[in-house]
Amino acid sequence: MRVVVVGGGLIGLSIARALTARGVGEVLVLERSSLVSGGTGKSSGIVRAHYGVPSIAAMALRSLPVFEELGAEVGFRQVGYAVLVGDENAEPLKANTAMHQSLGIEVDLIDPAELQAMWPMLNVDDVALASYEARGGFADATQLALHFGRVARDGGARIRQNTPVARVVTTGERVTGVELEGGEVVEADVVVVASGWWSATLLADLGIDFPVEAYRSELLVVDAGEPLPDLPVISDLVSLQYCRVEGAGQFLVGNSDHADFREGLVDPDDYSNIAAPASVEKYAEKVLHRFPGFPDPSVTHTYAGVYDVPPDWNPVIAPVAGVEGLVLAAGFAGHGFKISPAVGDLVADLVLEGDSTDPDVPAADFRLERFAEGRPLVSAHPYVGAGEMR
Ligand SMILES: Cc1cc2nc3c(=O)[nH]c(=O)nc-3n(C[C@H](O)[C@H](O)[C@H](O)COP(=O)(O)OP(=O)(O)OC[C@H]3O[C@@H](n4cnc5c(N)ncnc54)[C@H](O)[C@@H]3O)c2cc1C
């Protein structure tokens, strides 16, 4: 079987790794620029199994051993992961935590005092409850993607960089390959489109609508003014921010307030790579509120990345109806890193078995057609004000 994977990001390389591991002899990854030059290169790399959608929580759980086995090779630091909520979100947190425990995820509810014992400089005045996953933490998306690429190559895959795909080629209702910019045609039995936001353009050429928007997300690196120990990653659903240690004495702060979604839409090939001054002010205020104890905090630098966001903030990982041999794996909306090992395995299942082999990860959840059918993949217990916390 000849498989072409379009996109040399984390997802495309994980898919190439999974396919070669299962004996697919001819796997070719085509990347328009350099490997990890898309969203992967900007990832915060947070690892957790906390999701409101059970199949995605299960994928995160299945992916954890990959981080644990690779450890320092992919920069994995298993510092733990905590979700903080206010009164309004205590019930959804309890319900989601119970769902996680039923899947086998090691997670506990903890009270604000226990949380403060882990992060002594944390202000927990407005925190009603937290959940804590000891197996969570963070790692390096670039290193993980390049690891997948290396394993795929060792398994016989080929990777071509600076090779933009112009279009997917079909004959009747079947895929027959791809045409590169410049006109070369590469024949294939299966084409997997794993090109992030840009996947929509390739599908649109075939008359297929993949509703996905490019949403810019800003990040701050804050110097705490003192050395920091290994502290758990924090997803702060009260102030709508997330924080993790970054090097010694610094921490990375990301925005989880997506109320301004439409204002954040950008051209993913042409966007500002620094946080706007007004955002820096807003985020700094939230950081000072949550961490009042730092002696001399300052913002060292900022940057921005782009999420590929479908209407329900969840990915499509599925064969595309009506075009035999075409598979789409995109729309990870800022949360594809931690599930990327399991995504590769699911795509290998779809290509080789025609269905998911994991009962906790039903393939039907990730169909493209769910948008047109008005059946989005959403949490049964969404967080008030933070519904995108999948
Ligand atoms: C700022 C930021 C923070 C994040 N933080 C986290 C986090 O903490 N935890 C987490 O789980 N996830 C996180 N994510 C999400 C995660 O990093 C992404 O979901 C994941 O890296 C996406 O990988 P991808 O391969 O789908 O896309 P990409 O990395 O965008 O790769 C797509 C590739 O396709 C290529 N391409 C496009 N068009 C073509 C074409 N026509 N021909 C050939 N190649 C093409 C692009 O050049 C690109 O390299 C974050 C993302 C961002 C942006």
Core attributes:
390 residues, alpha/beta, D-Amino Acid Oxidase, Chain A, domain 2, 9 helices, binds flavin-adenine dinucleotide
Q: What do these coordinates show?
A:
This protein has two domains: 189 residues, FAD/NAD(P)-binding domain; 155 residues, D-Amino Acid Oxidase, subunit A, domain 2 (D-Amino Acid Oxidase, Chain A, domain 2), CATH 3.30.9. Helix 2 packs across helix 8. The model has no long low-confidence stretch (mean pLDDT 96). The chain has nine helices and 19 strands. The strands form four sheets. An eight-stranded mixed sheet has the order 5-6-4-14-15-16-13-17, with helices on both faces. The two termini are 35 Å apart. Strand 14 and strand 15 form a beta hairpin. By secondary structure, the chain is an alpha/beta fold. The protein binds flavin-adenine dinucleotide (FAD). Flavin-adenine dinucleotide (FAD) binds next to helix 1, strand 13 and strand 17.
